[in-house]
Amino acid sequence: MLIAFENPLNENALVFPILECLHILGFAVTVGTIALVDFRLLGFGLRSQNVAKLAKALAPWTLFGLVTVLLSGPMLFSSDPDMYYLNLSFQIKMVLLLVAIAFHYTFRRKLLRGDLPPGLSKAVACVSLALWTSLIFTGIFIAFVVTPGH
Amino acid sequence: MSLLDFALWIQNTGWATTIRMSAYLYPAVLSTHLAGIALFGGTILVTDLRLLGVVLRNQPAADVVNQLRVPKRVGFLMVATFGLLLASSKAEEYYYNPFFRAKLALLLLVAVHALIFRGGVYNNTAALDQARRMPGKAKLAAVLSLLLWISIACVGRGIGYIEPPLEKLHAGLLGGYGK
Asked: What range does the domain containing B21 cover?
């Protein structure tokens, strides 16, 4: 047992689905705004917009979504910590989440500020899209892989 | 052919059965549906926030709306295609599912929204940029669009929480359920 006391979140049946909705809306905002900048790097979408300015304009929304998922996520986790902790898809998701956030605020930020060779733009956009998409897949698969002992 | 007959027919097609029975295909289709939601949701959010004057104010609304049209359609195509695959794979139980019905009703409202606002707002952005201030109907369209899509996402999540009692229904024990 990771949490020894009764979790108040588990006392109302509506809390979990409401948190899930917030989690879904939050990642849609995060991944959606990131994708629009990545598409711009790849030459699609908002092309008349300067890429650094576009990234700067959408960054607060990306962060807003990220804060929403990072608040709702641990609350969802707390509903059944043993299960999540042992769940392979969850374990992979947490590693990918750390990599995605680190990549987003280091390499990708540097590139958007013009501190990396522009030749890397497309590679950075593809890595970013792949990382954030993989979080959606590993998130969904938590409910579909067998957790040992559960 | 009733709607329920149609649901049974589509659920029993080979591909719908394959998705339903497969341990990993169903979640893969669901994940792709959600990835589409992120892309589609992102384009809706930025389009509507631009109409509200919240983001990209230095860019003409016409540029933002028009340039987001292709990614928006790609996102919609992803959500719709993979959503239809999900719906087909469990069509019988979704036929009885109140959240699924609510989702279809909300999607109908999206069509109504398009009928009302498409001509005057989304296809009329050059005129919106000419106005000194963003017209009220554009802001109304943006707010309603955001509210509609947020409710559709939430109602969609609700679908998974309902399990209609199919076995009892098949045994004829709940004659009028959900009709």
From this structure: 3-170
